[in-house]
Write a structure and sequence with these properties.
- The chain is an alpha/beta fold and 232 residues long.
- Strands 3-2-4-1-5-6 form a six-stranded mixed sheet, with helices on both faces.
- The longest helix has 23 residues.
- The protein is globular.
- It comes from Streptomyces siderophoricus.
- Pfam families: His_Phos_1.
């Protein structure tokens, strides 16, 4: 079966503002995010990509644009099932404001029980994303063969939930996984089991450097939902 390269979108204006963007329109890459996406073609230059797939949201489309331009023979396919989690009434709110919400404890400790008011449950989010990947695996294999690789641009919680599925982890443990903006996570699927080949690979180890204030370099790497802005 094919190899899936999951690309988290580059850093967005919502990431740096500390806002839970969800599916709100008009959330674009910031200057750092645009630079991150511009570096993608070089990072993947040696990988023959059979297909490019993206969440319909603007920040993912913008992230894939340089890669698409570098591969003029490939079409970008939009896949609604890998769109950001529908955070419902929480969308557009400051993450700092959501800390004291009773639901936030469930989101952190027992996400499989969490359903966002006016939105979807985290179980439903994972299920649709896994279904999308399985369908794309079959589609890519049928068209390009079992050894093909393809890239899919999505969101932090979606990617973390796909990694949890690949590792056979319960969704309640997926908050232990960290994927920074524009990081690459690679899952190689086989008939018997998936293999996690890369996790949150940015090629940059600056995020491991201790902070000047003495805090942990990973302490604010990812928000509890929606992902964090990461280093830089």
């Amino acid at each position: 079966m094919p190899t899936l390269i999951l690309v988290r979108h580059g850093r967005s204006t919502a990431n740096t503002a500390g806002v839970l963007a969800g599916r709100a329109p008009g959330v674009a890459l910031d200057e750092r995010g645009a630079a991150q996406s511009a570096a993608l073609p070089a990072r993947l230059a040696q990988v023959p990509l059979a297909a490019l797939v993206s969440s319909p949201l603007q920040r993912c489309r913008e992230t894939m644009a340089p890669l698409l331009a570098a591969r003029p023979g490939i079409t970008l396919h939009i896949e609604d099932r890998i769109s950001e989690c529908d955070y419902g009434d929480w969308s557009g709110r400051k993450l700092a404001e959501l800390t004291d919400e009773p639901l936030m404890e469930a989101v952190q400790q027992h996400p499989s029980s969490a359903a966002f008011p006016g939105g979807e449950s985290m179980r439903a989010m994972q299920a649709r994303a896994v279904d999308a990947v399985r369908d794309w695996n079959a589609r890519v294999e049928q068209t390009h063969g079992a050894e093909a690789a393809y890239a899919m641009c999505s969101h932090g919680d979606i990617i973390k939930s796909l990694v949890a599925d690949a590792l056979g982890m319960h969704l309640d443990l997926f908050q232990r996984i960290s994927v920074e903006p524009c990081s690459l996570t690679v899952i190689r699927y086989t008939r018997l089991r998936p293999y996690l080949v890369r996790l949150g690979d940015t090629g940059d180890f600056a995020s491991l450097v201790p902070r000047e204030d003495g805090g942990s370099p990973a302490a604010d790497r990812d928000a509890t939902i929606g992902g964090g802005a990461g280093a830089g």
